[in-house]
Amino acid sequence: MPGLAPKRSGSEKEQRRWRLSPPKMLVLGFAGLIFAGALLLNTSWATQSGEPPGFLTALFTATSAVCVTGLVVVDTGTFWSSFGQTVILLLIQLGGLGIMTSATIFSILLGRQIGLKERILIRESLGQVNVAGMVRLVRYILIYTAAVEGFFALVLMLRLARDYPWPHNIWYGVFHAVSAFNNAGFDLFGQFRSLTGYVADPVVNFGIALPIIIGGLGFSVIAEVIERRRWRRFSLHTKLALLTTGVLLAGGTVLFLVLESRHTLAGFSWPVKVLASFFQSVTPRTAGFNTVDIGALAPVTQLWLCFLMFIGASPGSTGGGIKTTTFTLLVLTLWSLVAGREATEVFGRRVPLGQVLKAVGICLLALGWLGFVLLVLLAVEGKDFLRLLFEAVSAFGTVGLSTGITPALTPVGRIAIILTMFIGRLGPLTIAYALAQQRRVTFRYPEENIMVG
Description:
Blueprint: H1 10-18, H2 22-41, H3 55-66, H4 76-79, H5 82-97, H6 99-109, H7 116-126, H8 134-160, H9 168-181, H10 202-217, H11 219-228, H12 236-260, H13 270-282, H14 299-311, H15 324-338, E1 344-346, E2 349-351, H16 353-381, H17 385-396, H18 411-426, H19 428-435
Antiparallel strand pairs: 1-2
Helix pairs in contact: 2-3, 2-5, 2-7, 2-19, 3-5, 3-18, 5-6, 6-7, 6-8, 8-9, 8-10, 9-10, 10-13, 11-12, 12-13, 12-14, 14-17, 15-16, 16-17, 16-18, 17-18
């Protein structure tokens, strides 16, 4: 009848209730947690001196913690009080698991029902494809996180009991286990030393490196490995994530050893050289700990670490970067193009064109943002090009490794790094989706070729 609006379907009504798209909600959720953390850190209770640190310092630290980066402008172990360190630890845990995953874990513990809206948000935050099985995956995450962090906290506190009195060793063990599993890179050893005092200690090295690797694989990969156990039963995503991680770890170890064996590693025995090389190949995968002085590395080694930091961890993990599977998909696409194939194929499967375009988009957006940030840093900092490049890539990959220039950054430089950490944690494509006004396209233009290359 005239004057009566047509009835809307249930799905249309549900979409209208959203108001904000999942990417926008994720961006606002992370931004809200960062702002809340900055307010808590900008109090007299948060510092050992009893003086507020200043909002920009608090904001930088909160962003680095929530985005599990590890870049710091003040020393975590000597500047922040017990309250401040506890706030940082909570921000690391919430940021590493993800806003929606953390909220869902609390809902599960309280016995609340998880609705479709929350499931979609979890899917977006963990980089999954399907909505089905999200609550089950979150339960896996809860159990797995508690088990891994608890085990390595125990290992580290027992080892650190030789160096620190009780209960400091307990706090140190818990803090560094959580920081390692969430690929955060924050440490409490003081004077920006990270783990340089433990370069020859296998317990500390593996006690930090193993949770970094486990946390960087991605929760869905770990769940699949535990459930299916056999390589031939793994999904294509899990196969690529495991294979790429293994190749980068092995290749990173060998190349670091070759480049630095007569440089920063010259005074160590060969077993220590191999151990240090392995650790330095693990941490650029978004962790941020180091057992050798990063600022003393050869320029070619720093550039190699930039490459590893840019790739980062696997999707749905606690790490950043463009992600391992994105990098591998780009390599496979290039190989298919050179081989004259019309589609990207691997392990007897064909990758959809939409996934290939998404990988290309992520890489281009990442390179574009890094180029912009590098121009800003070069304009305002007046420091060496490679050091600024290293800082920018470390921030984007949410790594936290630094050549030592972070505390000396200008306010403009700090703001640029804050934005880079935020974009790196959420992903450039998620930020782009949140800013763009997406509309459904109901038509297609005719094709026409252009000359390329």
